[in-house]
Inverse folding.
């Protein structure tokens, strides 16, 4: 199970995923990137909310991860901000994930991108979709916590 990365090393988070899915297990995977993509990630020009992970020929790929090129990108390359990127994991882990994804209702969702030992890693989760009433419960809990914090803040004054 992947250790939760430090917030100072985070590049991007997929907050929408936590709202739409229950996370069963979390995994950390490497990601194959081009040079211009790494530079854009350093500047924070990435969107992870529409991303999802698919299995093709026993390999994992992330689709929908959008990395916007910098204006100073090289002229001899044509950056594709929506291209499919390969995820790197051990073969045994991938086989185990394939077995679980084949079960009804499970999918692989990217949670965040972060730095680890000078490399960019993608945290993915084996997830099951939330029903509409579960989403309403999540909203209700969040609003309740905000109200409690608001009252506590006013009582301190």
């Amino acid at each position: 199970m992947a250790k939760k990365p430090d917030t100072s090393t985070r590049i991007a988070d997929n907050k929408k995923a936590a709202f739409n899915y229950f996370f069963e297990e979390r995994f950390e995977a490497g990601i194959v990137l081009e040079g211009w993509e790494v530079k854009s990630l350093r500047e924070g020009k990435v969107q992870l909310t529409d991303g999802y992970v698919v299995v093709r020929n026993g390999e994992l790929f992330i689709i929908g991860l959008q990395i916007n090129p910098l204006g100073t990108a090289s002229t001899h390359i044509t950056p594709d901000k929506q291209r499919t990127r390969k995820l790197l994991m051990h073969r045994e882990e991938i086989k185990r994930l394939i077995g679980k994804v084949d079960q009804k209702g499970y999918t692989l969702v990217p949670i965040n991108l972060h730095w680890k030992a000078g490399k960019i890693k993608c945290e993915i989760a084996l997830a099951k979709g939330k029903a509409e009433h579960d989403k309403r419960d999540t909203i209700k809990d969040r609003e309740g916590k905000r109200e409690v914090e608001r009252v506590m803040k006013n009582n301190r004054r």
In short: The CA atoms of residues 10 and 114 lie 4 Å apart. Strands lie at 10-13, 21-31, 46-47, 52-56, 59-63, 66-67, 85-88, 106-116, 119-129.
